[in-house]
């Protein structure tokens, strides 16, 4: 029992000394790091404007990711429909899937393009 208490005390003292040592060394590690890039809009206009610029960049990135996901879903569906068409000789469903997929991709990209200027306001 006494040994457990002693080990806990030693552990607490070691962790406290490591925290204090790490706090002093932290500034030395940060000196070689590169600076953070400015947002594409609103840089240098204060904290709120810079934060809005970063939110804008994040929203644009999310829009691009959604476009990629839509493209991948359409491509996967088209490949599955093509495989089914080869097995069952029903090419009409494949043609419809491919056309609807192309329209969907064009619509998603167009909406993302229209949304970018709206987000910048």
Molecular structure report:
This protein has 121 residues and is an all-alpha fold. It is 83% helix and 0% strand. α2 (47-88) runs antiparallel to α3. The protein is flat. The model has no long low-confidence stretch (mean pLDDT 81).
Question: Descriptors for this entry?
Answer:
121 residues, mainly alpha, 83% helix, flat
Assembly level: single chain
**Binned strand content:** under 5%
Largest sheet: none
Q: What structural class should be given to the helix and strand makeup? A: mainly alpha
H/E order of the elements?
HHH
* Gap between N and C termini: 67 Å
Global Rg: 28 Å
Number of strands: 0
The rough form would be described as flat
- The parts where pLDDT drops under 50 for at least 5 residues are none
Percent range for helical residues? over 70%
Can you count the helices?
A: 3
Mean pLDDT: 81
Structure summarized in a few sentences:
With about 120 residues, the protein is mostly helical. Helices cover about 85% and strands about 0% of the residues.
Q: How do the strands and helices of this protein lay out in sequence?
A:
Elements: H1 2-30, H2 47-88, H3 91-119
Helix pairs in contact: 2-3
